[in-house]
Amino acid sequence: APPAGASGQAGPCFAVEGPGSDLVCFTLSAGASGRPEPRCFVPAPGRCYSLCVPAASSVPMARLHRRLQQRLRQGPFGRCRVLGLLCYGAQAALEKGFLIQDPQGGPETERALEELLRGLGELPPLLGVYEAGERGELWQCLWALRGAGGRELLRRARVVAAEEPPLHPAVPGLSHAAVFHSLEAARSVVEQCTSFIPEATAVLDLVDKCPKQSKKGEFPVIVIEGLDATGKTTVTQSVNDSLNALLLRSPPACISQWRKTFDDEPTLIRRAFYALGNYIVASEIAKASTESPVVVDRYWHSTAAYAIATEISGKVQNLPPAHHEVYQWPEDLLKPDLVLLLTVSPEERIRRLQGRGLEKTEEETELEANSLFPQKVEESYKRMENPRCQEVDASPSREEVLRTVLYLIKKHCGSL
Ligand SMILES: Nc1ncnc2c1ncn2[C@@H]1O[C@H](COP(=O)(O)OP(=O)(O)OP(=O)(O)O)[C@@H](O)[C@H]1O
Ligand SMILES: Nc1ccn([C@@H]2O[C@H](COP(=O)(O)O)[C@@H](O)[C@H]2O)c(=O)n1
After folding, report:
1. What is the DSSP letter of 165?
2. Ligand 1 pocket test target in 227, 233, 259, 348 with most atoms within 8 Å of CB
């Protein structure tokens, strides 16, 4: 097969979270290239493999990616290191997948991968096999599996280092694939799930009963945001009592029973679920704010910040830059008067998490296992615009934090 780049087209680039959470990028070359080899992913005498699927906001592809992720955590791949891989390029639509490093390099892993792919039914992803050449260079062989156990070599090309792109490769696809800026965008994703998630129909029925473009009443609407265990529940309850307000939370009670179902789904589906929850809460806020002040525990900023931090691998610096469109509030979602972002030190937050003793969700476990994740969530919160999040140091005592919050509400919304 002609080597990549032979046609003069820019070949695909690949990005993987390397050592120290750096984004390490590599591409394919038509032949000998003066560019340095990327930091080697092929542990000698081991081998590496890659699998990628289109990252477009497609429910079937999102579920296929999730299925691959779950299978690569099982049995035959136990000795392998599996890294998140992105395939991108001027001529290539974003693909997301996995780089599978097998330090032993025996035939078992390749056989197990072929078996995994053949079990997926028609049109399985292509299998990339990376192996070191005699002079220590790195080659990628791209295989298409064919019927009756056959396979066809589509491409063999040198692997060489590539410059890191100015924007993290996942940034352009964030909207619609993880951060929803309209009811319709989120709704269309959940609608594609009704055939395999029965609860999806119930969620759609509830959101369809809500008025479109809910309008805020004359009373102020205050949202309390923050990482897990920063004190949102404590603050919202105290503010609610102090202001004789109405306390709401996102996701709303009417769909909270289905959270576990959707939390087990890929990001695209999970975030669409929480996005629809925000639109349902908006209709509750619209009604409540005609009668009293409203305090909300989490809203759109949570949905967006957690989605961004989940999709953008590596360091905080990889986040979309400030003022990027992904941080803009959806035009069709009821906007609060004030959003307060509770912040505490990582140490204090872990103390409060442990002090709570509640079961952790997979996300909370990830939060603690990877300190970069909460940093990316919090930085995403801080970049939100229109409305922005106003930071509140929530480390002091409950009483002092409440005083600060009530002062900011009075300052911003007037006496209530
Ligand atoms: N100012 C404070 N000082 C010390 N402990 C606090 C303070 N505020 C809350 N806590 C305690 O920290 C823990 C987490 O608080 P809370 O449940 O209100 O956080 P949260 O942000 O709502 O968490 P999550 O988002 O995970 O539900 C609780 O045990 C709570 O009693
Ligand atoms: N509007 C929201 C609210 C929540 N989430 C996601 O749920 C996680 C847990 O929320 P809790 O309030 O139960 O701690 C949160 O970390 C988000 O991932 C959301 O996306 N949007």
Report:
1. P
2. 233
